Structure formats: C-alpha cells, structure tokens
Amino acid sequence: MNELESILNELDQPAGDNGLPRRAELCHRGLALVSKETEPRLWAELQDELGNVLTQTSSGESAEDFEAAIEAFERALEVRTREAMPVEWAETMNHLASVYLDRIVGKPAENISTWTEIFPQNPSRFHYHHGDDMKEASNPWKATWHHPPISETIQR
Fold first, then answer.
1. Which domains does the chain have, with CATH numbers?
2. Helix or strand or coil: residue 39?
3. pTM of the entire structure?
C-alpha cells in the first residue's frame, strides 16, 4: 500500500473528538501528494474534508480555522461545480453556508447576507435521508450527508 492509499484508508475511519487534528494532518499530507490537475475529484474531496475538519476542531474559538475552512471549501468548489458534480457541489455549498453562519470574523449581518447568497432557498424546511426514511431536520445545518469513502475517490 502506498502512502496516499494509507492516508485515504485512515481518513475513511471515524475520527472521534481527539482524532480531528490527525485528520487535518492527513488531509494536508494527502493534498501534498495529489494535484488538482491529475486527480481533481480526490483533490476536491480532500479540500472538502479539510474544511469540515477545520470547522469541527475550532469549536468556535479559532477564527483562523473558520477562514481556512472557507478557503478549503472554495477550493473544492473549483472542481465540484454545479454542472460537473451537482451532488458534491450541493454538499460543499451546504458546508460553506454553515461556516458563514458560525463565522467569527466580519460583521454578523454581512456573514448572514453571504449565507443567504449561497443558500437562497428557504432553509426552514430541510430534509435529509437517514436510514430508510426521510426525516425533517430541526436544524438544517446539522443534517448528515452520506457520501462514499474518500478512498473510493482515488482513480486507479
């Protein structure tokens, strides 16, 4: 198993609360081994995962983590376009909108305005698939998305 496969396999495992810094390290290591030009889907998946990890590790205390997460999500959207990858695009847009709602820097009104530009639909009713039935999420930004493991993104 090469280094990239090892990284991706570890990222496919649940992190737990103490494993988030390790996940960020793995994302950075993976991104150092993958280029947007040669493995665009994997590169975008790693960017999205990095953004998610950064929002979870900051626990609302690090503005730098939130800003880095925004940058990672925006980089992921360079590949995850609405036309090319609509499901992944929607997932990353959801993550980006969520970060703007929780953003520490900037004026709250501007952050909410940016959020409404990203997610203009009425977010008061948001459904997500969980198990075999559809459930309504009371908080639309806490809904979980199912996507294949990162290791399945690698092109063989």
1. 3-153 (1.25.40.10)
2. coil
3. 0.70
